[in-house]
Design a protein that fits this description.
The protein has 167 residues and is an all-alpha fold. Helices cover 54% and strands 2% of the residues. It contains eight helices and two strands. The radius of gyration is 17 Å and the shape is elongated.
Length: 167
């Protein structure tokens, strides 16, 4: 549920009840893991721009045309738990490249696939330095380590909308 819903629920439930959104919980966990964190809601777009700056001609045109597909794939990767192969071997991988690719509307070109992995690697590196986006709030503590609190009971609104990283 949304932050607003969490505030309403917290007022209505007993004071012994902890109410958090997934993002709020993940944000707290990651902050405890790496120290201070700051939210950059344009992080993926900024990284895309930086990672594609060196490309020229047809490659640059291809990447610009695939901009939204690439951003969508990065978000989807974080939702299903894909971590680029051979990188961050300590991470808890939930999905392979093939699983990510098959979950997208169309297969990314080899160049787009290269950029998706580059964006993810840089995003992960930045998250370790405390710069996160909304997707990182769940992705980083779930796959890269974080100390999750234990609760005797967890209630989830709209459980059918949970993705593998949420689980």
């Amino acid at each position: 549920f949304s932050k607003r819903d969490a505030v309403v629920a917290e007022k209505r439930l007993p004071s012994t009840t902890t109410v958090r959104t997934f993002n709020g919980l993940g944000h707290r966990i990651w902050a405890k893991t790496v120290g201070k964190v700051s939210l950059d809601d344009k992080k993926t777009q900024r990284i895309f721009k930086d990672e594609t700056e060196e490309y020229k001609g047809d490659d640059r045109r291809e990447l610009r045309e695939a901009y939204w597909d690439i951003l969508n794939a990065v978000g989807r990767a974080k939702a299903i738990g894909y971590v680029p192969e051979g990188k961050y071997t300590h991470a808890k991988r939930l999905a392979t490249w093939d699983e990510l690719s098959s979950s997208l509307d169309e297969d990314p070109s080899p160049l787009a696939a290269e950029i998706i992995d580059a964006i993810l690697c840089r995003s992960i590196k930045e998250a370790y330095s405390g710069i996160i986006d909304f997707n990182d709030q769940i992705y980083m503590p779930a796959l890269f380590g974080g100390s999750f609190p234990r609760f005797p009971l967890v209630c989830v609104d709209e459980a059918q909308d949970l993705n593998p990283t949420n689980h």
